[in-house]
Amino acid sequence: MADETTIEPQGGQTVVKPGAGKPKPGRKRGKRPARKSGAATGRTVRSFPASTFEEALTLAQAIQTYAAGQRIRRITLFDHLGKSPESGPSRQLVTNSSKYGLTVGGYQAEHIELTEDGRVSTSAEASVVEQLRARFKLALASIPPFNDLYERFKGSKLPSAAVMRDFLQEKGYKDQEISECIDTFIVNAKFLGLLRPVAGAERLLTIEHALEDAARSTPARPRADVPATPAPAPKGIPASADTSDWSKICFYVTPIGDPDTEERQHADLFLSTIVEPAVEEFDLRVVRADHIGKAGMITGQIIEHVVKARLVIADLSFHNPNVFYELSLRHACRLPTVQLIRKCDRIPFDLDQVRTVQIDTTSIYTLVPQLQTYRSEIANQVRRALETPDAVENPLTVFYPGLQVTFPPNGKKQ
Hints:
With 414 residues, the chain is of the alpha/beta class. The chain has helices spanning 53-67, 74-81, 88-99, 116-122, 128-141, 144-153, 161-170, 175-191, 207-216, 262-279, 300-308, 321-333, 364-367, 371-387, 395-399, and strands at residues 5-10, 13-18, 72-73, 103-104, 111-114, 195-198, 201-204, 237-238, 249-253, 285-288, 311-315, 337-342, 356-359. It contains 15 helices and 13 strands.
C-alpha cells in the first residue's frame, strides 16, 4: 500500500510530502526525549480550558447518550462518536471536558465518567433551572479568570475588549492568554444566556436574573430579516491584489451580488463590522472576491485563494451555490475553515454537524448590541482552526478519512 501524502501550503505553493509516517533509512528507533513543558515548547499554558464550554459539553452529552450517564470505556465512547481516541482533537476534548469539571478521566485513562455537576448539566431529568445553575458553576464560576470577569462586570453593560484586557492585566494574568480568555468568556456567557441586548446595549446578566428567566421559560420571538441599512465601507481588498504571502491571507467566501442588492449590503456589513475585526489580532488580511471576472463565475484566482489562503471564512447566508462550491473545494483540501450564517437561514443538512456561528439579524436593534459577541465567537473558532490546522474536521474528513487531494506547486497539470 502506498504511503499517504500530506498537503502543506507554503509561500504560495502547495507542497506534497509523501510517506510522512515512515522512519528514515538508517535511523534506529529508540526512546523519544522527554518533552519539555511550558515556554520551552512554545505552548501557552492557559489558566482556563482551551475550548469553549459548549465544545467540551459534547463529550459529557455523549456519555449521557451512549452510556446513560454511567462510566464508559474511553475507546468505546469515541467509537460511538466516530472519532479516533488517540487523535489530537479527541485528546484535547477529553482534557477540556476534565478542566471544566464535566468529566473525570484523562485522555490516557481507560474509563471516563461524569462528575455530579456534569451529570446535572446533561441530564434530561434535571430541570431547566438546575441545569443552568450547574452549567454556570462549571463554565464560569469555577474558572478563575472567567469568574473574575463575571464578578467585575455582572449586571452592567458588556465593556469593550480593551477594558476587560486592562482588568485582567491588573489581576496578574499573562498578556499572551488574555485575548483568548476574553473571547472564550464571552462565548461561554452567551451560551448560558447571560448576554442579552437591553436598552440598545448588550448587558451581562447576573446568574440570578438568568435563573428567574429560565424558570419562566419564555418562548423565543419569531425571526425576520434585518432591514437594509447603510454599511461602513469594507477594508477588504479585491482578490486580484498582490498576495505574495498566503500565510497572511483570510479569504472571505460570501454571496456578493450586484451593487445595491441585499446580498452586497449584507456582504459589506458582515465584512466590515464582524469578519475584519474578528481576525485582526491574528495578523490576517481579509480578501473578498470583488472585481474578479464576470459576476457569478468561478475564476482561477478565486480557486487559488480557496486552496492557498491560510484561512477561509465561509458565509452560508442566502444559500449561495458559489459559496458551497468553494467551501466543498476547501473541505477537500483539508484546510482551516470557519463557517457563519444568518440565524434566519437554515444550516444545510450536510453541514449542520460543523460548528457555525449564527448571527441574529432580526433587526438592527438586536444585531448591533451583539457585534462584540459575534466577533469573539468567530475569533475563538479562528484560533482553534489555526492552532491545529492538521486536525481539520469536515464531512469529507469524517466519512472519507483516506481521501487526499494534492496540487502541483505551479498549479498546472502534470
